[in-house]
Design a protein that fits this description.
Elements (H helix, E strand, L loop, with lengths): L3 H25 L2 H30 L3 H4 L8 H15 L3 H12 L1
Helix pairs in contact: 1-2, 1-4, 2-4
């Protein structure tokens, strides 16, 4: 059986490394390229990394309160990405996901 939780763990690590690499390249450049790199890191990489981290926490069984300090402030577009990753990687049911959300937020 394929360990999809391991694939999600690798995805989380890869996105963190990507953000570090982009930040280092930002420091080496100037002008429009630097601005583009910054915007890409903040608006493209960061939301996916956040959603992946939340989905990985669910797959491991970690309470949402341990992952996010204010889960009620998580934007809906992040939750959509989390739900897609949970379905793809966690191997757990949708009801388990809803229970995890309900016990964490409610």
């Amino acid at each position: 059986m394929i360990n999809r939780k391991k694939a999600l763990k690798i995805k989380v690590k890869h996105l963190a490394a990507e953000a570090r690499i982009i930040r280092n390249e930002e420091l080496k450049t100037r002008g429009d390229t630097r601005d583009w790199l910054y915007l890409h890191r903040i608006h493209t990489v960061r939301p996916v990394a956040r959603a992946s981290h939340i989905a990985y926490g669910f797959a491991k069984g970690t309470p949402l309160s341990k992952i996010e300090r204010y889960p009620e402030r998580i934007p809906t577009e992040i939750w959509a990405k989390v739900a897609a990753m949970v379905k793809k990687y966690s191997g757990r049911t949708e009801n388990e996901y809803k229970e995890w959300l309900g016990s964490s937020i409610g």
